[in-house]
TrEMBL record:
It comes from the Bacteria. This is Methyl-accepting chemotaxis sensory transducer. Residues 40-64 are annotated as: Disordered. Residues 50-64 have a biased composition (Basic and acidic residues). The chain crosses the membrane at residues 6-30. The keyword Transmembrane helix applies. Keywords: Membrane, Transmembrane, Transmembrane helix.
Length: 64
């Protein structure tokens, strides 16, 4: 078990560019999940208002 952990650490230490790419992907995925979680309640609150805005815009474009 300890040998496996040491091999993984040595692999990432040796291939530092590869490890930076993996860390960047992990951080990016965490940030996008946080954004989706924050955006989701806002869309549920404004869902009906957004639909009314769309219909209002459609009516205004018909009038023009």
């Amino acid at each position: 078990m300890l040998v496996g952990i040491l091999l993984i650490i040595l692999f990432f230490a040796h291939h530092w560019l590869f490890s930076l790419i993996i860390i960047g992907l992990i951080v990016y995925s965490i940030q996008t999940k946080k954004r989706r979680f924050v955006d989701r309640p806002q869309t549920s609150r404004t869902n009906f208002g957004g639909r009314r805005d769309i219909s209002d815009e459609a009516e205004q474009s018909d009038v023009k």
